[in-house]
Write a structure and sequence with these properties.
The protein is α/β, with parallel strands linked by helices. Helices cover 47% and strands 18% of the residues. Strand 21, helix 21 and strand 22 form a beta-alpha-beta unit. Helix 1 (10-33) packs antiparallel against helix 4, helix 12 (350-371) runs antiparallel to helix 17 (463-473) and helix 19 packs across helix 22. It is flat and about 115 Å long.
């Protein structure tokens, strides 16, 4: 396996090894501080420091050798009974901070780092090494009893360690040590990219690598077996054709009946026997080929699953350092806070895990600084003096759900409403109409905060906006629930992986599509019926009534939906969902998804593409976007009736896009009253689908929306040959000059704040662009 590291520099190997060792050191030191130390922990810390010392010596970092040697010696003394004092834990944690800072650098910056920090590190080393004869104070570690017999093993270990220090291990030795001793061996998935920059390293356990290698070898053997089969089949087939031709020639001469000579009859019998033998061989070859094909399918499936598993990492890898973060922050603020992490073994896609670190850090910092009360106040409120902060991860319905909970003061609704009105983000009347979930959305606005003072950690109002932006970038969503005096919970919902999805294949019209099963509540056969008061045909299933929409019509094909005619249905969404009528449900299939080439552009109702078992492209449907489009689109039957009634097609048509139902309805009422024809959409993706299939005179869009925000929507419109001349107005609570400029640079004609509803600016902008409406 050492050859797999050939493209990595020794400093890269040092950084890789440091990551795992630092995690061990920090986690165990915090456990020591809590009084949870065990002999095994001390042993692991000693080995981690020793391993880093050897690696540092290889890359010529003498300063780091001194630091890690001092740490190692301190852990050895702790093993022999000299307990680690509370003050020493702080110094040891500082040492890990120095090492973490070094491991984050590029190799070219190391010399400068050493020169800048050598004096401070030498001072820290002096603090870690007690003077000769100095007694180390007793602490929580004193309770870590050494089992009988452990002392002799430890002395042997110390002798081995000292002997190892007499020699400098070779680069190959370091590689072997990294591969064998590290719980997670590192492999570089293509060390250098096309651009010449080093690509992200891929981690695989040694066992996982061995399984992949075994499956690849098995696949190679099967491939070799199959490769010779076509030639053998071809030869046998040609012989069968030749023998058949000769038998037919003899039959034509009458040899097959009573005619012909005895010699001809013997020749025909020999040919027939040869044909039977070769045909039996041919059947056996077909059976062997079929068996080999099944084996190849099984091996490749297992290989794909194993490789896909290499992308999944435990949630704990993304939470390294969080306990330390909360501990240090709480200590600086005079608070007593403990972070509890649940679901550490929950698997997460490496890409998603990397994107989670920053938003989770923001949420934890915000909770400690902003949400959790100081001990004196908690005592007055009859709360436990020690605050609890929980971080949990689990899988729900194929999604990764992460919760950050605190038992603090919660979000004050009245203070929140007051700040919204003070900043002219909405009128007092509109704020009073907002649902609680919509009210809490304001905390994600940039620059918005209910705090009057600013600290080093929070109070400027940018943290939660960054959290929302980063979670959206990772393909997820974030929501918040809060109860005054009880606490606040942030819920992050993200994809577990972007590489594989379980789907159901359906036929809609003349084409086959795949729908992700995680988005489908149920599959049934239903009979659509008309219902008084409903514009849609409906179907009832499990006590719930669903409006029925033809999937083929949404995808640009002829609808096969008929009242009273039973059809397969895909039920999407709970409560207010949709029953998508399809022509046929084919089967269930796991697909390796691929992103649609950006040169093709966004395909309405399609999220990605995959290849089926025959290598044909298969479009993966975006069920959420289709559902929103279906609910926001006027049914065909009503559209026809509008044309028959002679609807005035000269009335200006405006598409209003906002993810807040309250704002959307308020804007719609204002525009309808002013004499405009109005349609609505809940987000940018739904609006884009409508813009591609309907005609509008003006687009009026919010900026911050899930799936596709307003800036992205404007950019798409301006880059579309058909829509590029459309009038566009952006509405947002964000009123910073840079936000306004970003909207105008994207192509908006106007950028207005939502506070403009209360004056004439809003309607005047509409009139300037498309003229006055026609009030009824």
């Amino acid at each position: 396996m050492s050859d797999d590291f050939g493209d990595l520099s020794l400093f890269d190997l040092f950084k890789m090894e440091a990551e795992d060792n630092l995690r061990v050191l920090q986690d165990h030191l915090l456990a020591v501080e809590r009084g949870e130390v065990t002999p095994a922990m001390l042993e692991e810390m000693m080995r981690a420091a020793h391993s880093m010392k050897g690696a540092a010596r290889i890359v010529g970092l003498d300063l780091v050798v001194s630091l890690t040697h001092a740490m190692e010696d301190r852990f050895v003394k702790a093993q022999t009974g000299k307990a680690i004092a509370h003050g020493e834990i702080g110094n040891l944690l500082k040492a890990t901070d120095w090492l973490a800072g070094l491991s984050a650098l590029e190799e070219s910056a190391v010399d400068g780092w050493v020169e800048t920090n050598k004096d401070a590190i030498h001072a820290l080393v002096a603090q870690l090494v007690p003077a000769e004869g100095e007694t180390v104070a007793e602490s929580a570690v004193a309770g870590a009893e050494i089992p009988e017999g452990e002392s002799e093993n430890r002395q042997a270990s110390d002798r081995m360690r000292l002997a190892e220090e007499e020699k400098v291990p070779s680069a190959e030795a370091l590689r072997v040590e990294t591969e064998i001793e590290s719980e997670n061996a590192f492999l570089d998935a293509g060390a250098m990219g096309d651009s010449g920059h080093r690509q992200q390293a891929v981690r695989l356990s040694a066992g996982g690598f061995d399984r992949i290698l075994a499956l690849a070898s098995e696949g190679l053997v099967l491939s070799n077996q199959i490769s010779v089969m076509p030639d053998a089949l071809d030869r046998n087939w040609r012989m069968l054709v030749r023998i058949t031709s000769e038998i037919r020639a003899l039959d034509a001469a009458g040899v097959g009946s009573d005619g012909g000579t005895k010699e001809q009859a013997l020749i025909r019998a020999g040919l027939r026997a040869d044909w039977d033998r070769r045909f039996a061989d041919f059947e056996h070859m077909i059976m062997d080929l079929d068996r080999s094909a099944r084996e190849v399918k099984m091996v490749t499936s297992r290989l794909h699953t194993e490789i896909l598993g290499g992308r999944l990492r435990p949630f704990s890898e993304g939470t390294a350092g969080f306990v330390r973060l909360v501990r240090d922050l709480a200590e600086n603020m005079g608070k007593q806070v403990s972070l509890q992490i649940e679901g550490a073994g929950t698997t997460v896609d490496r890409e998603v895990l990397d994107k989670l670190k920053a938003p989770l850090t923001h949420l934890l910092q915000n909770a400690v600084d902003h949400a959790l009360e100081p001990p004196d106040l908690r005592r007055i409120l009859d709360k436990p003096i020690h605050s609890t902060l929980e971080l949990s991860a689990n899988h729900e319905h194929g999604q990764l759900v992460i919760m950050v909970r605190d038992d603090g003061k919660g979000i004050n609704r009245e203070e929140l409403k007051k700040r919204i009105v003070e900043r002219d983000l909405a009128s007092a009347q509109m704020v009073a109409m907002l649902a609680d979930s919509e009210l809490l959305e304001f905390i994600f606005l940039p620059g918005f905060s209910t705090r009057t003072e600013v600290s080093e950690v929070s109070g400027r109002g940018f943290g939660l906006n960054v959290v929302q932006a980063m979670v959206h970038e990772a393909g997820g969503s974030v929501s918040v629930k809060s109860e005054a005096g009880v606490g606040t919970t942030f819920k992050l919902t993200l994809p577990v992986t972007r590489s594989m999805v379980r789907t159901v294949r359906v036929r809609a019209g003349s084409d086959t599509f795949a729908a992700p099963l995680v988005r489908i509540e149920a599959i049934c056969v239903g009979t659509p019926q008309a219902r008084p008061g409903s514009r849609y045909l409906v179907v009832e299933e499990a006590g719930a009534v669903y409006p029925v929409v033809s999937l083929s019509s949404l995808l640009g094909q002829e609808s096969t939906l008929r009242a009273g005619h039973a059809s397969p249905m895909l039920l999407v969404g709970k409560g207010g969902g949709v029953a998508f009528q399809v022509d046929k449900v084919l089967d269930q299939m796991d697909l390796a998804i691929r992103k649609v080439d950006p040169r093709i552009g966004k395909i309405p109702g399609v999220s990605s593409v995959a290849l089926d078992e025959n290598g044909w492209p298969l479009l993966l449907l975006d069920m959420e976007a289709l559902m929103q489009t279906a609910l926001g689109t006027t049914p065909v039957s009503e559209a026809v009736r509008e044309v028959v009634r002679g609807l005035d097609q000269n009335m200006a048509h405006i598409l209003v896009v906002d993810d807040s139902a309250t704002v959307r309805e308020q804007v719609r009422r204002i525009l309808v009253k002013a004499g405009y024809r109005v349609s609505t959409a809940q987000n940018g993706r739904e609006a884009w689908n409508l813009l591609r299939t309907r005609s509008y005179d003006l687009l009026l869009s919010d900026v911050d929306m899930p799936q596709m925000n307003g800036i992205e929507l404007v950019t798409k419109v301006r880059s579309d040959a058909v829509l590029e001349r459309m009038h566009i107005v952006l509405l947002s609570y964000k009123d910073r000059p840079e936000d306004r400029q970003r909207g105008l640079d994207a192509g908006a004609d106007y950028y207005l704040t939502k506070g403009s509803f209360q004056n004439e600016t809003f309607l005047q902008a509409i009139v300037d662009l498309i003229g006055k409406g026609e009030p009824q």
